[in-house]
């Protein structure tokens, strides 16, 4: 947690709360799956009712084939819904000029513990 209500414990369901993330990107949701990169970014709770996040994410690839390449993700993350969609707005390296979308599926969500497992399916075009 980066910022939130200063009068009590910060909570992702409150408007204005900001979370920074540096999570593993893996080939599958299995705990022992091969890591292919990191997801660096921020979530901002941008809905007065607390139900939506604004997502800004860099998917930074570290595996041999795409090492150093990135995909830039942005959009409204209605994280309380099992399925949602965000935009692929750009990319670097092998994914230069990427444009597309990503569908997100919540597989596991622990709001009090600030933990989640999200399955990403990313579709994009690039040069």
UniProtKB/TrEMBL annotation:
Source organism superkingdom: Eukaryota
Localization per Swiss-Prot or TrEMBL: Secreted, Extracellular space, Apoplast
InterPro entries in UniProt: Allene_oxi_cyc_Dirigent (IPR044859), Dirigent (IPR004265)
Cleaved signal peptide residues: none
GO CC terms: apoplast
Pfam families for this protein: Dirigent (PF03018)
Main location: secreted
Keywords: Apoplast, Secreted
UniProt GO BP: phenylpropanoid biosynthetic process
Record text on subunit structure and interactions: Homodimer.
Family under the similarity heading: Belongs to the plant dirigent protein family.
Function: Dirigent proteins impart stereoselectivity on the phenoxy radical-coupling reaction, yielding optically active lignans from two molecules of coniferyl alcohol in the biosynthesis of lignans, flavonolignans, and alkaloids and thus plays a central role in plant secondary metabolism.
Protein name (record): Dirigent protein
